[in-house]
Amino acid sequence: MFTRDQVASKIREWLEAEKWKLSEFRDANFQLAYKIVLSSGREIYVGLEKSVERVTIQNTLLIPPRR
Q: 13-44, pLDDT tens digit by residue?
């Protein structure tokens, strides 16, 4: 098993290896949280939650209005 600190370190290594533009930010619910901006401009959020053993990866999807 990995410790939470080891998981956090591995996440950072993975993101840096992909050479993505990333910035760390603070969120009360997460041990660590990163915003990643892809070359397309799309933003993805990756975080290690505090209250549960879970890594969250989130993206925003625009849904066009119904015609």
A: 988 898 888 899 999 999 999 999 888 888 99
CA distance 13 to 9: 6
Contact (CB, 8 A) for 30 and 48: yes
Contact 6, 12 (CB under 8 A): no
Sign of CA dihedral 39, 48, 9, 23: positive
CA distances in angstroms from 7 to 12, 40, 54, listed in the order given = 9, 28, 10
DSSP states of 23-43 as a string? Answer: EE---TTEEEEEEEE-TTS-E
How many other C-beta atoms can be found within 10 angstroms of the C-beta atom of residue 47? 21
Site of tokens 């600190």? 5
List phi, psi (to 5°) of 7.
-65, -45
